[in-house]
Specification:
Length: 158
């Protein structure tokens, strides 16, 4: 019976877990990292609200004709250039040549353009002389700078 008692004692000793001293290191001696912080779940994005605009108030500008002060179409807007804040700075107007030959693009200051609604369409007019605009340097998107035609300041009355 003595052997049976020894076997029972040995079985009890082997079944009891050995306590290790509390240290920041695990059994392998490597430092334990703290658990990652719990991040709150991201809020679900809200669906966008809709606003209905009349078609005339939602017209695109690209391809729209540009009229001189007499109401004659002198070209079309083909691009809008923005400044560092994202505000429109200039419009690129394409002046048509004869049968598509000789088309030229000129950048015009945004402030030189006037927008209005005429017969349920956007009307874009420009105060600058069309003949003088055509003589200005051409807009080239790959150039390091853009020549922009601006409205000359009115002379002060003397």
């Amino acid at each position: 019976m003595r052997n049976d008692a020894r076997a029972a004692c040995l079985a009890v000793l082997l079944a009891v877990p050995v306590a290790h001293p509390q240290t920041p290191y695990g059994a392998s001696g490597a430092a334990r990292l703290p658990p990652p912080p719990v991040r709150p779940p991201k809020p679900k994005p809200q669906p966008p609200k809709l606003e209905h605009l009349r078609k005339v108030h939602a017209e695109g500008l690209l391809g729209q004709p540009v009229l001189d002060t007499k109401g004659k179409a002198i070209g079309t807007i083909v691009d809008v250039l923005i400044d560092q804040r994202g505000d429109p700075n200039a419009a690129v107007i394409e002046f048509a040549g004869f049968l598509g030959v000789g088309n030229r693009k000129i950048a015009v200051a945004w402030t030189a353009l006037h927008f209005s609604v005429v017969k349920q369409r956007i009307a874009i007019t420009i105060d600058l002389d069309a003949a003088k605009l055509k003589s200005l340097p051409e807009y080239k998107p790959s150039a390091p700078s853009v020549p922009v035609a601006i409205q000359p300041r009115a002379k002060a009355a003397q």
